């Protein structure tokens, strides 16, 4: 089977380490530059609140996507990832459908069950029930997007001829990618989603997990070829590997945590000269990654330029799972 053409996106700085605060003007300019450079997608992070002694100021993800929708014209716009249990699913279905209209059909919905206990406590959502709530909320969103009217009752939500219009521009609905690392998540992808969105995985870890997801899809009667994937990877392009390695590790240390129960690791970072970065990315593509979302060091526009002009051209001719 022929491989798929690889797509490239960028993450946006809608959160920062305190005391800095995210700049909506900076985000808009960055996304506009990414679009002009030919990137396929732009992604926002999602938390309602995060951190105590080390707080992270956040611009809310869906509001930011709405602004991006009217500032850009071609970029696909994604959530990487929306913490689904924290949101009222009926309101969420309406907001996301509106974002899909504002963007003329460019929304990609990445969702996950969440991990930050204090955030759930502050929002009044039982943390230990987040898996069950995730599945319920996802089902409600999908029903409002695809059914002429919604009937029934579940967990205090009563639907009596509930009609939500307009539906999303994309039919039957926007694509839904699930984030997570364990078999429980992979089984939810098989039953409820269109694919997997992962974070800071090495090529070997990605290959094993993607094969596992395909195995579970076959077990569940789902054609694995239907599934898509997106991999978020930090990157620093520099004059030497050592310079890039120092820069990207310092950036990751200030901005990100990696889940100890997953195979996410700072060692997944793409770093070095353009040739070295291209060689590292080629291994991800050969492992099966279809859509790479770059998290450029310090969100510098100069990094966007280097990635688009010096790194991606070196990968021209590659398709997923196939060597150039």
Question: How would you portray this structure in words?
Answer:
With 324 residues, this protein is of the alpha/beta class. The chain has a single domain (7-315), classed as Alpha-Beta Barrel (TIM Barrel), CATH 3.20.20. It has ten helices and twelve strands. The protein is globular. The two termini are 15 Å apart. The model has no long low-confidence stretch (mean pLDDT 96).
Keywords:
single chain, 324 residues, alpha/beta, TIM Barrel, 8-stranded parallel beta barrel, two-stranded antiparallel ribbon, 10 helices, 19% strand, globular, oxidoreductase
Q: Estimate the global geometry from the Cα principal axes.
A: globular
What is the third-level CATH name, the topology?
A: TIM Barrel
| Annotation field: number of helices | 10
Q: How does the helix and strand content classify structurally?
A: alpha/beta
**What is the CATH-assigned architecture?**
Alpha-Beta Barrel
- In the sheet with the most strands, the strands line up as 1-2-3-5-8-9-10-12
CATH hierarchy, class: Alpha Beta
Percentage of β-strand residues: 15-25%
In helices, the fraction of residues equals 25-40%
**CATH homologous superfamily label:** Luciferase-like domain
- Straight-line distance between termini: 15 Å
GO molecular function: alkanesulfonate monooxygenase activity
Organism: Candidatus Segetimicrobium genomatis
Keywords: Flavoprotein, FMN, Monooxygenase, Oxidoreductase
GO biological process, one term: alkanesulfonate catabolic process
């Amino acid at each position: 089977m022929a491989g798929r053409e690889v797509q490239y996106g960028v993450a946006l700085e809608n959160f920062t380490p305190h005391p800095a605060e995210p700049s909506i003007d900076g985000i808009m300019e960055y996304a506009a530059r990414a679009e002009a450079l030919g990137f396929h997608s732009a992604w926002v992070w999602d938390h309602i609140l995060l951190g105590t002694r080390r707080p992270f100021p956040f611009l809310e993800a869906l509001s930011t996507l709405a602004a991006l929708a009217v500032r850009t014209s071609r970029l696909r716009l994604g959530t990487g990832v929306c913490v689904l249990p924290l949101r009222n699913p009926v309101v969420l279905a309406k907001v996301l459908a509106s974002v899909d209209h504002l963007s003329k059909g460019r929304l990609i919905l990445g969702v996950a069950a969440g991990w930050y206990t204090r955030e759930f406590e502050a929002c009044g959502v039982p943390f230990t029930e987040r898996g069950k709530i995730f599945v319920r909320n996802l089902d409600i969103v999908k029903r409002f997007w695809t059914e002429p009217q919604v009937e029934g009752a579940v967990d205090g939500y009563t639907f009596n001829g509930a009609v939500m219009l307009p539906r999303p521009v994309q039919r039957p609905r926007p694509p839904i990618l699930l984030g997570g690392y364990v078999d429980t998540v992979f089984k939810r992808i098989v039953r409820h989603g269109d694919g997997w969105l992962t974070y800071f995985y090495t090529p070997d870890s990605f290959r094993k997990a993607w094969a596992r997801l395909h195995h579970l899809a076959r077990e569940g009667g789902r054609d694995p070829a239907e599934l898509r994937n997106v991999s978020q990877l930090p990157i620093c392009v520099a004059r030497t590997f050592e310079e890039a390695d120092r820069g990207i590790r310092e950036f990751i240390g200030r901005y990100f945590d990696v889940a100890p129960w997953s195979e996410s690791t700072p060692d997944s970072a793409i770093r070095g000269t353009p040739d070295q970065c291209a060689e590292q990315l080629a291994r991800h593509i050969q492992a099966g990654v279809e859509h790479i979302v770059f998290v450029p060091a310090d969100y510098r526009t100069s990094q966007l330029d280097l990635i688009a002009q010096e790194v991606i051209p070196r990968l021209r001719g590659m398709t997923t799972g196939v060597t150039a």
